[in-house]
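[recover] target loaded
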């Protein structure tokens, strides 16, 4: 507990000795709780969806039921990012969104999640789980509509930004033209737009191919009722539930009391790679509007999107590296990018990924050298 908080507590005790045993100042109680949370290993936390996250999960489940889908994917609190294992029905939800205190921490120390973004991610991943649960990807008409499910999945892809053959859903959350990444992602993005509802026919009336995909989802799910009842596949694909994460909350977010000289160096390198979103553009985005810089993705989201492939490749290239340390380092980079409002211009994504990989590899090698 900080000295300031201790002084407040001692002063309050002297002034009102008969009452303050159970009436610590709110700021002190909050500070004690914060320090306890930071010092706790993530696996020792008793987590369950609360507050905004619980509301978002219930809202998506409600949307499924309105569409006649009674099956609910196995949402669980796991490691970083939203994802669904290949051909499994469990949806990983980041552990740090479980409650208000953790949500505030991630927004302060990693990057900001909004309620609408969480709903978007949940709908998208639910689309994957529904596809796998009912084996829709095996259908001939699914392949004719979305493409070959067995096509190799590539982390780095080159989309056509002018194409109207795909819906744009997570695109609004910083996942650049994500439907173009793979037929499975095309399905999940299309399903998410359909599940959210609204006037999707009117919005896509001039996008003939994208509209045909939305109408396919509507026909298969709403008219043919192909997703009613119990599915044929209920395989879970839990990769890292939060109960297996041994780091403390402070270690995960790299929260410390002293000035970290490494972070200053990371900031310098990242500023050379990523431009910063101008203040007026940030104000426009905060009001839910668009600006001339709207075609630039958050650099923090960009790093998160490529975190797994970066960690795997750097670990493979550098024999003495620990993948957990690499992931923690990449989260540090995300935090710097968030604090500095850095972005990745859509037209320079491939170039920026190369530069990021070079910088990340150098810092990991430098860290190993200094420790040896």
């Amino acid at each position: 507990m900080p000295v300031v908080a201790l002084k407040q507590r001692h002063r309050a005790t002297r002034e009102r000795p008969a009452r303050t045993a159970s009436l610590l100042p709110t700021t002190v109680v909050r500070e004690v709780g914060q320090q306890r949370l930071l010092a706790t290993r993530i696996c020792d936390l008793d987590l369950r969806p609360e507050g905004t996250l619980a509301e978002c999960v219930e809202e998506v489940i409600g949307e499924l039921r309105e569409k006649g889908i009674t099956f609910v994917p196995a949402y669980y609190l796991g490691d970083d990012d939203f994802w669904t294992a290949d051909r499994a029905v469990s949806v990983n939800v980041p552990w740090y969104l479980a409650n208000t205190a953790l949500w505030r921490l991630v927004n302060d120390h990693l990057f900001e999640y909004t309620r609408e973004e969480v709903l978007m991610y949940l709908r998208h991943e639910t689309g994957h789980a529904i596809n796998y649960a009912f084996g829709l990807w095996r259908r001939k008409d699914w392949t004719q509509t979305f493409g070959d499910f067995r096509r190799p999945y590539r982390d780095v892809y080159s989309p056509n930004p002018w194409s109207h053959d795909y819906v744009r859903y997570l695109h609004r959350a910083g996942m650049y033209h994500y439907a173009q990444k793979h037929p499975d992602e095309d399905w999940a993005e299309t399903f998410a737009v359909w599940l959210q509802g609204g006037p999707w026919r009117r919005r896509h009336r001039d996008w003939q191919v994208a509209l045909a995909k939305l109408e396919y989802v509507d026909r298969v799910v709403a008219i043919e009722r192909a997703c009613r009842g119990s599915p044929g596949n209920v395989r879970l694909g839990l990769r890292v539930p939060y109960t297996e994460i041994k780091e403390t909350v402070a270690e995960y977010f790299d929260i410390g009391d002293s000035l970290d000289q490494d972070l200053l160096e990371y900031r310098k390198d990242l500023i050379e790679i990523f431009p910063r979103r101008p203040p007026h553009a940030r104000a426009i985005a905060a009001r839910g509007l668009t600006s001339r810089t709207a075609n630039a993705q958050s650099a923090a989201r960009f790093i998160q999107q490529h975190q797994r492939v970066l960690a795997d490749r750097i670990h493979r290239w550098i024999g003495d590296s620990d993948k957990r340390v690499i992931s923690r380092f990449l989260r540090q980079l995300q935090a710097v990018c968030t604090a500095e409002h850095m972005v990745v211009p859509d037209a320079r994504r491939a170039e920026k990924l190369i530069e990021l990989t070079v910088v990340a590899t150098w810092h990991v090698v430098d860290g190993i050298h200094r420790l040896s």
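[recover] notes: Residues 37 and 216 are 47 Å apart (CA to CA).
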